[in-house]
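Give me structure tokens for this 804-residue protein.
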Amino acid sequence: MSLTLAEARERAATVSDVGYAIDLDLSDPRTHFRSRTTVRFTCSAPATFLELTAAEDLTVTLDGEPAGATYDGRRLELRGLTGSHVLVVEARLPYVTDGEGLHRMVDPADGRTYLGAYLGLDVAQRVFCCFDQNDLKAPIALSVTADPAWTVLANGRTVVDGAAEAGGRGRWEFAPTPPIPVALACVVAGPWTSVRWEHAGLPFGWHARASLAAELERDAEELREVTEACFDHYARIFTEPYPFDSFDQVFVPGLNWGAQEQPGCVIYRDELLPAGRLPDDVRLLRGSIVAHEMAHMWFGDLVTMTWWEDSWLQESFADYLGYRVAADAAGYTAALLGHEAGRKPGAYDADERRSTHAVAARPEDVPDVAAAATIFDAISYAKGSSALRQLVTWLGDDTFLRGVNTYLTRHRFRNATLADFVTALDEASDRDVRTWVELWLQSTGFDTLRMTRDGDVPVLHRDGTRPHRVRLTAYDDRLAAVASRMVDVADEPVPLPHLAGRVVVPNSHGETFARIELDGPSWDALAAGLGRVEDDLTRAVLWTMLFDRVHTRHLTPTEFITLLERHLPAERSSTLVAAVLTRTLARVLPLRVPTSEAAGVVARVAGACAAGLGGASSPDLALAFADGYARTAPDAGLLLRWVESGLVGDLPLTPGLRWRTVRRLAGLGAVDADAVEAERVRRPGSDAELGAGAALAARPTPEAKAAAWAAASAPDVGNRTVTALLDGLWSAEQAELVAPYVDRYLREAPAWAARGHGFAQVVGQARPTLLLTDAQRALLHERLAGDLPTVLRRQWSDWADDLG
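Here you go.
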């Protein structure tokens, strides 16, 4: 069972002065490792418990004597406690392949093994015995035994380097951390390739698997520059100095999230270090994530939420600062474009589902850690980030930062709540911060900013309850911008007589979180000429509006695809191309297009991509359109020429794009299993293993689907493998062929999801990508009426809501 709010509060009231010394023996990297934890703590109650999951060969001593402890496979119950104690717990624990615990990966490229403790909600207990809750922060001293040929990294600076030792066992020791939550402990071990340097008096490093050495070398200068630029910027805007003694960043295999903010040792999924040409949208995303995770060193690591309802105090702030600092400090001027085009639309979707919640939820809305796993979502990230951007727009940057610095200093190395942040902000401002927070952060839903006409005069209306300060941009008949200004709107409509006769777009740079509705003439002009709008950010806002109209059924899929055919080929931003195509194929197609029409819609998208590819003005734009074409091509001719030549026009076919091309060819029946295998061995590695799995699963035969299902449903299947197999298996164009597996997914996936919160998220995200039949929808609702793992229930409930 997950820790409940009541249990956490009771334990925090009785347990204090906690400290950990953790000794991990990773010298046998095959199936299990040994964990020895010494926990020092004071307890004012006669009994308490710690968490430790799936332990074997367990020994427990308390104050030097065998402890009369009770262990149920998840909790270690202690009795007879008074005052201060020293608990020593030794156990044998399993490595995992699902990203929740001490993850083990053998690199197919070279056979080398990598280990990584990717912790988080209910996960630290899978690596060491602990009080697994945020508000029992503690110093952690870590030591590791492992292959001396490896590199081992952790939260603290290395004080004993096992690589210097001879023989088969090296031993690393790391400086104790300041007080941190156990969920943010970190250790990664393996034959990493590294780039190291010093900056601001601290050791820095970027690390990746040995097989990615060329990619790390390719990007090393850029990665160093963005790291230093963001670090120096945070040093200027925060009065609290960087709180840890080193700063490593590691591209790791198998991470369930984009990245994790472990203090002093940030980990990133290594898909952010792709082979071949680095796409511009990935570069922007990665730069924003670097800034995001570094912001967590203060928001989350220095000051940590007390309980999970305040996830926004960490994620909303890091998301907002990530885009802002990536642009302001690191030169990624289009960073905000990725948010507006790729992340914010999902937050609008999330805020209209039954599962929506306030950005700053109430504690009782998060009754246990399993429930907490469901609120690391688009509300806590993209909506919260957008709300903070609006707060800064409304409050002013200096006032905002003054409040932030008071909050960080007042609660350094401690825990905090919404009330603590509001108090600090209120002290910094003479505006009514508390009412703003109540309206924006403690309520659900979003307002609509609606344009109407009074004769020729545009009028801005606010349908809702929140104050908004937004930019309005006006255009002439050719959609050239002629005026732009900030406007405050609340209860009273705002007439704009100086913009009479103009096309007007409200919230044109996305300063607020609100639906926009255009007046008739403005809609007609933009539906005809969206591509002529010069500003990328405004086009992103308008594309989001189009997707919203499909979601609300004000646009049919056919009408939307017609607009896509008209405007996408002329799009100038590769980030926008990638975002529009992803959302079209991941949401419009599976949620709004009947399977009988799917092939036709996919072919029309392919036509738009082909047209865009033919007129692309840059390599990044060409590859973005090529990627879309590789996912949608109705016939094999051009794709076969790409694979045979290794070129898209005169551009090298990147390994990722090559595998998407092979997968589409397999789905079209144009290549067989032997051809896929030949492609796999051409350049061995994890990308090849996953790409081949997806391609084999995509083949349009019953045997291919059966084999893919058997592999995906294996009890120890890895998280990346199950994603690749099911992504390949599902196809709206193969609806009849995959129909039996839609039913099997709905019946069997709950058992898969029982492995843990992160794997449940992976399973839920790997759901069928086709519009369900009435019978399939009925089965989905039948399953929702029964017993499901909490995270999977949330995923499926959202799916049902999106289907409408």
